[in-house]
Amino acid sequence: MVLACFVLATCAWGFGFYGHGVFLAELQRQHGWSTSLISGATTAYYLVGGVLVAFTADGIARVGPRRFVLAAAATLGLSAALIPQVQTPWQLYAVYILMAAGWAGTSLAAIVTVLGLWFDKRRGLAMSLALNGASAGSVVVVPLLVGMTAWLGFRAAVAASVLLFALLLVPMVLAWVDRPSAAWAPPSADAVEAPWSKGRILGDIGFWSMAVPFSLGIAAQAGFLMHQYAALEPILGNVNTGFAVALTGAFAIIGRVGLGFFIDRVSPRGAAALLLLLHAAALAAIAHTRSPAVLYAACAAYGLGVGNIITLPPLVIQREFPAAQFATIASLATAVAGLTYAFGPAALGLLRDASGAYVVPLLFCAGVDVLAAVLVLWRPRAAARP
């Protein structure tokens, strides 16, 4: 199950997150469209995905995890394969909205909901291992798309990449992704509790004490990652900037695996605060130095928190809310984060254009991380579970 979710995350983040950089460059080359036009489609994609992800838990409960994941993965793959075919801006927006449905059903909310059916005490480790696929998406899928585009052309490269991952993912989903039998289901004393309505969850101050700081941290992270190459390239050059980006991804895997082995025994809010402050320090260092060694070290330090910032919210939910409400609350928290970070890259772009450099945007993100670190430590409700 964890391996299947790992490959699912690789596909979701590879095509549905990191792949947008490749799509942007190729669509500009093919059609001469402006960055703002294509970025607008990306923003619409994240906004629609943020709304749809709120219903992920409902969909999995209604049709079952296997059918839901297969349908979402097929939607993601089909829409990715259609992107090279678009000829007009309205077609691009239509395909991106279709892709948003696939992203919502294959990314964080879907993965934590499926794993939540199988794991209880070691849920943190299971999620950490599975969500390493998100980092693998940048390490595997993006180079594959770039290399195959140079060899086969954009249209054939995307189609071949989608087919390759379909051949890998579909058998795993068919074999392993399903509801556990009664003998394997995690025991829960409160599993018989009636599900909370979305209105009740959205009216709970404890929910917002978790959703707001993590949404701010993820928005700052999404903004930086989208602009990282552009911010570093004038200093480091193309090749060394690529190394710095890869270093961030590599340390994201190291950080997630390392914390995963003991996160079930520490406070996820405390761990989140420390990682957010580490992000702030790394961003401040990047903003104020031109030393390659310091920039590499800062990118590595930033990477240590990249994966964990999206892994920790479900663990806060597990600790502080009844187990029967986990899937619905996790989906809503992911939706709030998605609606927030949809504006992260655009906000940094506006600050960059207004200030003429990346110092102000980077320091803005650092400030957002410090604010999120303070807010995440505020816990207005007693834990509902030990």
Question: In terms of topology, how is this protein built?
Answer:
Elements: H1 2-31, H2 35-52, H3 56-63, H4 65-82, H5 89-106, H6 108-118, H7 123-130, H8 132-152, H9 154-176, H10 198-202, H11 205-236, H12 238-260, H13 268-287, H14 292-306, H15 308-320, H16 326-341, H17 344-355, H18 359-376
Describe this structure in words.
The chain is mainly alpha-helical and 386 residues long. It folds into two domains: 1-186, Growth Hormone, Chain: A (Up-down Bundle); 200-379, MFS general substrate transporter like domains (Growth Hormone, Chain: A, Up-down Bundle). The chain has helices at 2-31, 35-52, 56-63, 65-82, 89-106, 108-118, 123-130, 132-152, 154-176, 198-202, 205-236, 238-260, 268-287, 292-306, 308-320, 326-341, 344-355, 359-376. Mean pLDDT is 87; it is low at 382-386.
Short description:
The chain is an all-alpha fold. Helix content is 80%, strand content 0%. The chain folds into two domains: 1-186, MFS general substrate transporter like domains (Growth Hormone, Chain: A, Up-down Bundle); 200-379, MFS general substrate transporter like domains (Growth Hormone, Chain: A).
Pick out its properties:
18 helices; Growth Hormone, Chain: A; 0% strand; mainly alpha; 80% helix; disordered C terminus
Unreliable stretches covering 5 or more consecutive residues: 382-386
Terminal CA distance? 26 Å
The CATH homologous superfamily of the largest domain is named MFS general substrate transporter like domains
Structural category: mainly alpha
Output the number of helix runs: 18
Would you tell me the overall average pLDDT? 87
Proper CATH architecture of the largest domain: Up-down Bundle
Report the helical percentage: over 70%
* β-sheet strand percentage: under 5%
User: Major sheet: size, sense and barrel closure?
Assistant: none
Q: Output the radius of gyration.
A: 20 Å
Number of separate domains: 2
